[in-house]
Each structure stands twice: as structure tokens, then as C-alpha cells.
What does this fold into?
Amino acid sequence: MKDWLKSFHNRRSRKKNAHRKTAIKLYIIIYVFFLIFIFIGCSSKSANYNYINYKKLKKPDRTRKLYSIEFVKFEDYSPRRIGLINNYLVLGDYKADKIVRIVDLKSAKLLKSFGRRGQGPDEFISFSQIIQDPQDQNSFWIFDLSTGNFKKFNIIKILNCNYYPEKIIKIVEETGIPFRLTLSPDGKILALGAFFKGRVAIYDTNGNFIRIIGKIPVKEEKFASQHSQGFQGEIVYRDKSNEIYVATLYGSIVEKYNPNGDLISTLYGPESFFPQYDVVPAGQYYTMAPNKKTRFGYFDICYNNKIDRLFLLYSGRNFFEKENLGNIIYVLDENDEILEQIELDKNIFEMEITEDGSTIFGLTENGVVLKFQYKSIGDSLGNK
It folds into this structure.
């Protein structure tokens, strides 16, 4: 009987060891397949795009909701561009009779309107943005996409009914068509657009082309400018680190370059997708066209120098959805980690952050400018 029991226990022990070894082998196989999956995924990215140094943006543990108040509403004016210049909000609607409007930040009162359609010094055809001058808090720039004119205005002079620009720079379209501009602290003009070679064009203070940095993401030179247009987005200069960030409109991608033009990292996520679009004939030329898979990624990117934070306005929605704007803002720290996710109660497509980081202004589709108080909800950011 004892021999039988001993034999029975030995058989059970051998079975347990066999099961344990089988489980270990199974875990190893799963882990190997997991590594292969990651390797294939990264290899696929490397094979399809000119990106390097991928870094996954991870969703943060902290999520906050911000509730809006209606800062100003227009019945006959639907602003498409916004800028914060000193104590004033500068708005632009290129379909309006007078394109530019100046609103007081404290009272929300409309102070001045100017800029009719045309090619005169104080006129515009279709401008792409309003940019704060990094060296003068009372000055701002407006880029007219149709004429290539980059015009500098002084807000004090405008309030005194002098609407003529202080300076006009003609951007030389040597490498392609610039869409979105920003300024570095030393006055260089950085542009994102439909380029034949490279990603970001750099111009001097007189608008002369210096060089182009980065590579057009898609490895297909035949339709380089169309692919460059497909990867269009917003561009900012991070003063404290002297780095350039490009947020992609049709993908969840943010490119980070150093001043030498090296791609430091390719940030992607938190939900990961690359631009989907078609290149189609347009007369004797070709153009980029959205398709059923096209999604909006990052509508806007803003940098706040005082708290050294990047703000990314995210959508993730399909291009053809009725409500396809963004209501998620990711706040990134100096290490490109997402500190928190902000959920807005209303959808916006462009934003501005006040200099002290306390308030976010957003544009909607119905002529309303929204105001979100930010400083009061977060001591780690607002009170830094």
C-alpha cells in the first residue's frame, strides 16, 4: 500500500512539473510573439514613413473637465483665427467685410475693425494666422496666404486708427507654398506647407529662403508636395528648449526638431493613426483629397513659455462627421510626457493660452469665442 501511495504521489508530482513546464513554454511563446508583433509594427512604420525615434504618448491618470463661458458672440462675423496680443484678443474672419477685429480682454468689448479684401497694405485676401511678435508684446503678424505677404501691425497704432502695417515681408516661395508660420526668438520665420523637399522651411527676417529641415514623411517623391499637404498641421517654437514642434492635422503625430534640423523624436498617440488621404488629378495638376478613412488628429498646438507647457488640441474624429472638432487638450511637460488630459464641455478648432497660463480661449463654428478658466483647477500647472 505504501509503495502504491508513493508511486501515486510521484506520478502527480511529475504531472505538476510537466504542466508547469508547459505553462512556462506557453508564456515564452506568447512573449516572443509579442516582441515580434512590436518589431513588425515598428518596422512597418519605418518602411512606410521617413520618421525615426518613435515615442508613444500615454494617456495620463489625471483628467479634468473645463466648463466654458461665452466670452463674445458675433451675429455677422465667424472668426477662423485667433491671437492674444497684450491685453487684447485679435480675431480674423476672411469672409467678413472687415476681416480683423480687436476685442478688449477685460470688458469683451469690440474696439476696432479693419482690413477689407484686397492687396493693399492694410487689406487681405485669405490669411492663415495671427502671430505674436516674440520681441514686442504690442506687435503681431498676419500672413496672407494668397499674396505671400507677412505683415506686422502695432496694436496701439490700430487702436488710434492707424491700420497700416509697420513692415511687410514677402515670403519667397522657393521650395513650395508655405501655409502656417511661426517666429523664433531671433526673428527667423519657420513655415509648414506644401513643399517639394523637406518638412519645415526657414526664412530670414526679410523673407529670404535659408534652408529646409526634416523629410516629407511619405517615401514617394513623385507627389512630394501633395504628401506634404497631407501631413499639414500647426507649428510652434519652444523657447526654453530651442526646439520646433509640428502637430499633424490628419494624424496623431507630433514631430520634434532641434535648431539644426534633426528629428529628435516622433511622438504618436495616445490613439495612434497616420494620415489617410488620396492624391487625385486636379486639372493638369494633382492635389491631396480626404477620403472615407481621413481623420482629424491635432487641430492646434500652443506653447506657454511661463509654465513651459505644450497644449495639444485633439479630435480623433472622422473628416466627414458632422461634429468633428476637438474637445480634448493634452498638456505636455518639458519631457514630452502628458501631465493631464483636459476635457472641454464644447468643441473648438483653434485655441490660445494667456501668458500667465490661467485662461484658454477657443473658437467654435458659430461665431462664438469661448473662455475656459484653467489656473483655478490645477495647482501643479497654474501656480508653478
Q: What stands out?
A: The first strand starts at residue 54 and ends at 56. The first helix runs from residue 2 to 48. Confidence is low (pLDDT under 50) at residues 24-44, 376-384.
